[in-house]
Design goal:
Number of helices: 20
Largest sheet: 4 strands, mixed
CATH superfamily of the largest domain: 2-methylcitrate dehydratase PrpD
Shape: globular
Strand order of the largest sheet: 8-7-9-10
Oligomer: single chain
Number of domains: 2
CATH topology of the largest domain: 2-methylcitrate dehydratase PrpD
Order of helices and strands: EHHHEEHEEHHHHHHEHEHHHHHEHEEHHH
Length: 546
């Protein structure tokens, strides 16, 4: 169902139920059943998030976020001898801890005077519980740090797996079960993907997490079974506080790139809390004459058609998203697959002396965001940050050609980026916008939508090579679409050397039963390395204010 969105002056008020925030809320909390294939994909993405989080636990941004969450510990679960998720936390030392009857979604809610359970933090003792907004913050940074989880690209780009940390933290905090968690995650994916289909943020240099704040708020509301009006207030507040410029993804890219979605998730939890307390938010946040559309997006005369499920219609948008096989910006995925293949088939491509130039003909988005069309000299700088290199398609193609692989650590190592023959080849690679690839990038037809392009190589001897690729091998329409076994293999691979084998198996055992988990078992959806494994990373993280 298409929803018309345009600006209304204050003397031309919009009916409340016609505001986009209200319509998003109605979709989020519509109690329609979650389809089985959607629930299975939710499980895949929970595993995917944990995989990339495991690989990032020792990295500085993640250690800093984890330390911030550790400063907001709520309590320690008291069930000596039990593993995470084995039994409920002992609440005998908590005053007023009697639970009220479960609400319409089955979520048990505690007495207003009683502290709730808190949420687990990746890398911390699983018996520790942090305030949910800070658990979502730390876990969100861990998930986002390596740019290695799922994606959806349309009018706007997005990483809808960013919804999972705040929804999971809220679920653990309030004592939800697996079915409620699945419902909340499916709703978060639905809202973010539907917004990304229709409303471009990057065209106005607004960061893509402006769609994530509302979607995460909607996902948490779906989990809790909130009413439409409360949910709409939370969505509006989340949008209002998460609109920022996309300088975080421009030039020399900083560590904030991983924090931006975590901040949106944290703000979503706080917006839900505020709305549940009866407080209101700017309205209409999208359509108001001083609202987001009028002043941050296409202006007072803009019109958007946002596709949303109708009443009683299942939320299936997660099935239109896709994960990453490689740790790099999604538009680089197909190019990595093509470069690996060409480097093996034509080894002369690895020698800069044999190559005069390589031009990647691709979509406008790829050209200006991760290509030479960005005009960022940092994309050709061998001393640039990892965050910058994973947004440099010339660098990525050069390394994938030479190495025949892409690795989340080796491919970004300073000694790898600074290798003289790589730098020479890298600087002979450029991008060019191609109208047909831009059209395919924006196509609404899944069979036609593409994120790759055409490579044209001119060799030093005057010969040429032309090849192309439309989608990554792991894409649903690619050569090797990701299935459950691929998500599990990705988790095992990235957790190797980080988590103990028994911890890997424990997590997978819990995650694959997600839909039927009892409330106390949701604490098992965390990952904990062996004692002392993160000591070096934690010690290297400077103290902050808290």
């Amino acid at each position: 169902m298409l929803n018309d969105v345009h600006v209304h002056r204050s003397d031309d008020p919009l009916l409340r139920h016609d505001e986009l925030a209200h319509r998003l809320a109605a979709v989020a909390v519509d109690p329609v059943a979650v389809d089985d294939d959607v629930a299975e994909m939710v499980i895949n993405r929970v595993i995917d998030n944990a995989a990339v989080a495991a690989a990032s636990l020792g990295r500085a941004p993640v250690a800093a976020a984890r330390a911030q969450a550790a400063a907001r510990l709520q309590h320690r679960a008291r069930h000596a001898g039990a593993g995470p998720g084995d039994s409920p936390a002992d609440t005998s030392d908590r005053p007023e801890s009697t639970l009220r009857a479960a609400g319409p979604t089955g979520v048990a809610s505690s007495d207003a005077r009683s502290p709730r359970a808190g949420a687990t933090v990746f890398g911390l003792d699983p018996e520790l519980r942090a305030q949910p907004e800070w658990a979502a913050w730390a876990n969100g940074v861990a998930v986002r740090e390596l740019d290695f989880h799922d994606t959806f690209l349309a009018a706007e780009y997005s990483h809808p797996g960013d919804n999972i940390p705040p929804v999971l933290a809220a679920a653990q905090h309030v004592g939800a079960g697996g079915e409620q968690l699945v419902r909340g995650i499916a709703a978060g994916y639905e809202l973010q993907i539907d917004l990304a289909r229709a409303i471009s943020l990057h065209a106005h240099k607004i960061d893509h997490v402006a769609h994530l704040g509302p979607s995460a708020a909607g996902g948490i509301a779906a989990l809790l079974g909130l009413d439409v009006e409360t949910t709409a207030q939370a969505i509006a507040q989340a949008l209002h506080t998460t609109t920022a410029t996309r300088q975080s993804r421009k030039g020399l890219i900083s560590t904030w790139k991983a924090y931006a979605p975590a901040f949106a998730g944290k703000q979503a939890i706080e917006a839900i809390d505020r709305a549940m307390r009866g407080q209101t938010s700017p309205s209409p946040i999208y359509e108001g004459e001083d609202g987001v559309v009028a002043w941050l997006l296409d202006g007072p005369d803009a019109r958007y058609s946002v596709p949303l499920p109708g009443p009683g219609e299942a939320k299936r948008a997660i099935l239109d998203s896709y994960t990453k096989e490689h740790s790099a910006e999604y538009q680089a995925q197909a190019w990595i697959d093509l470069a690996r293949r060409l480097g093996r088939e034509r080894p002369e491509l690895r020698d800069p002396a044999a190559v005069r130039s390589i031009v990647l003909h691709t979509s406008h988005h790829t050209h200006v965001v991760i290509g030479s069309g960005a005009g960022d000299p940092q994309k050709y700088d061998p001393t640039a940050s990892r965050e910058t290199l994973d947004h440099s398609i010339p660098y990525i193609v050069a390394v994938a050609l030479q190495d025949g692989e892409w690795h989340h650590e080796r491919s970004y190592a300073p000694e790898r980026a600074q290798r003289p023959d790589t730098v020479e080849l890298w600087r002979r690679i450029s991008t060019a916008e191609d109208a047909e690839w831009t059209r395919r990038y924006h196509s609404a037809d899944p069979a036609e939508k593409a994120f790759g392009g055409r490579i044209e190589v001119e060799f030093a001897d005057g010969s040429r090579l032309v090849d192309e690729i439309a989608v990554a091998d792991a894409h649903p329409l690619g050569a090797r679409p990701f299935a459950r076994e691929d998500y599990v293999r990705k988790f095992r691979t990235l957790a190797d050397g980080v988590l103990a084998p028994e911890e890997v198996e424990r997590f997978l055992g819990v995650a694959t039963r997600l839909r039927t988990l009892e409330p106390h078992e949701l604490a098992g959806l965390t990952i904990t390395p062996p004692a002392g494994a993160l000591d070096r990373a934690d010690a290297a993280s400077p103290d902050g204010l808290f």
